[in-house]
């Protein structure tokens, strides 16, 4: 077992990793920016080292400072969490060259899945269907127009790097395509330092369904079922659940087919550790590959709740060189789990970020409730990072029980001093279409455009 692990992240995922390490009797080292000195992950770790000023470019994205902290603390391994450097192949290489184990996929696998365009090529080689589109980068608007004419509108312009919905635009005609092409490139350059984009056919009213995979260094790869992440706002996930109501309802045979496809992609990429293969599923039950997230996901807790498998502990054991102790036949699914991302945003003011001091913090509890958060009363949420301050997860014997528990838990969750998205998620849980499991990635768009006053007028 590793003796000491450095957690190269912050917020709730850093707390989540530290907790797993404590249960494995592994010491932890937190790194933090100056503004995060009072963050919970700093308080829970065995050691803590400041690595720079508040902007992530001067702290959490500084490979040199993180490696220096790791060497000073004499750690065996680094866990990058999600975001920041978690999918940076160069960082993984630097860790290995310094004789520090990187808890994630190898740089070889990351390079094979370097961006969304190369991932599409690998998926095709694995025999997994992809939406029709460009073969690689689209270099100019003339090429974009030619591709759109060939595959037909609507199309999606996508940044090859990054995520979170940035650098993505839908076009329904030539005019919106040209405008969207330049906007997506500019946005991608600012967000990721890479302006490259590609084009693919836009699948209308799809479900966004992802499969959790685990692989060891000996070539053993399994999947742990799907998560339905279709409840999104501006391409950012808000509510996730497992199993998918679409698969459980209309397309029960998809779980086996998509699970095999996810494993096949991982095999071709020689993938190890935890990862997620993302797909879209259209109204006819056809599925298409989107991308591979080469890290632990924000929404991993719902998979843990229905499988009983601790994904962070599995990551650590795999990084140590241990073989998977779980075969595909060992994976069983029990009940239903839902996750709501709690963001410091004001849903009554176009979801404007709401950083500031948390005056009161009371997390819900009771049977079937899990809260992963780094917030506490007196904590000041800085404006420099992602607005997510926690995740509320509920579990039940079936979807109805999980939803009822979530509604109850949301009503108990009390945070004052800042605005949060809790009222918005309460509205989602009460929506009849969500209750029936009848939704697509446009659910929130329709919910807001069709009844924003109805959702918020009585609460404003």
CATH architecture of the largest domain: 2-Layer Sandwich
CATH topology type of the largest domain: D-amino Acid Aminotransferase, Chain A, domain 1
Largest sheet: 8 strands, antiparallel
Please report the distance between the alpha carbons of the first and last residues. 53 Å
Radius of gyration of CA atoms, rounded to a whole number = 21 Å
CATH superfamily of the largest domain: ATP-grasp fold, B domain
Computed structural class: alpha+beta
> How many discrete structural domains?
3
List the total number of helices. 16
Shape: globular
pLDDT averaged over residues? 94
Number of strands: 22
Poorly predicted segments: 456-460
Q: What's the helical proportion of residues?
A: 25-40%
CATH class of the largest domain: Alpha Beta
Q: Which range does the strand content fall in?
A: 25-35%
Strand order of the largest sheet: 13-12-9-10-11-14-21-19
């Amino acid at each position: 077992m590793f003796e000491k692990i450095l957690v190269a992240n912050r917020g709730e995922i850093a707390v989540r990793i530290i907790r797993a390490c404590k249960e494995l009797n592994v010491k932890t080292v937190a790194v933090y920016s100056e503004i995060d000195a009072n963050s919970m992950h700093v308080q829970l770790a065995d050691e803590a080292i400041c690595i720079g000023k508040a902007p992530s470019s001067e702290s959490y994205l500084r490979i040199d400072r993180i490696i220096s902290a790791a060497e000073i603390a004499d750690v065996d391994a680094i866990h990058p969490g999600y975001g920041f450097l978690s999918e940076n192949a160069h960082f993984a290489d630097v860790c290995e060259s310094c004789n520090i184990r990187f808890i994630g996929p190898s740089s070889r696998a990351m390079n094979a899945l370097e961006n969304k365009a190369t991932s599409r090529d690998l998926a095709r080689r694995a025999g997994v269907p992809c939406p029709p589109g460009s073969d690689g980068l689209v270099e100019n608007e003339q090429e974009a127009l030619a591709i759109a004419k060939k595959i037909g509108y609507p199309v999606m312009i996508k940044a090859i790097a990054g995520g979170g919905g940035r650098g993505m635009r839908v076009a329904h005609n030539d005019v919106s395509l040209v405008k969207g092409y330049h906007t997506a490139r500019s946005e991608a350059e600012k967000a990721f330092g890479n302006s490259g984009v590609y084009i693919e056919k836009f699948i209308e009213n799809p479900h966004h369904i992802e499969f959790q995979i685990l692989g060891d260094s000996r070539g053993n790869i399994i999947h742990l079922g799907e998560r339905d992440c279709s409840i999104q706002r501006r391409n950012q996930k808000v509510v996730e659940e497992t199993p998918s109501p679409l698969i459980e309802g209309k397309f029960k045979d998809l779980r086996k087919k998509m699970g095999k496809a996810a494993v096949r992609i991982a095999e071709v990429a020689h993938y190890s550790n935890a990862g997620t293969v993302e797909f879209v599923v259209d109204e006819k039950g056809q599925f298409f590959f989107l991308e591979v997230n080469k890290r632990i996901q924000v929404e991993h807790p719902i998979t843990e709740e229905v499988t009983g498998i601790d994904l962070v502990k599995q990551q650590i054991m795999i990084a140590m060189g241990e073989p998977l102790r779980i075969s595909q036949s060992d994976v069983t699914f029990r009940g239903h789990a839902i996750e709501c991302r709690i963001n410091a945003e004001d849903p009554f003011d176009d979801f404007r970020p709401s950083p500031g001091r948390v005056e009161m913090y009371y997390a819900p509890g009771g049977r079937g409730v899990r809260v992963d958060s780094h917030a506490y009363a007196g904590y000041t949420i800085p404006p420099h990072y992602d607005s997510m301050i926690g995740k509320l997860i509920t579990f039940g014997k079936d979807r109805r029980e999980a939803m009822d528990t979530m509604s109850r838990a949301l009503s108990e969750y009390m945070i004052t001093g800042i605005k949060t998205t809790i009222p918005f998620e309460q509205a989602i849980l009460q929506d009849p279409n969500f209750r029936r499991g009848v939704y697509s990635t446009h659910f929130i768009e329709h919910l807001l455009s069709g009844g924003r006053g109805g959702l918020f007028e009585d609460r404003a």
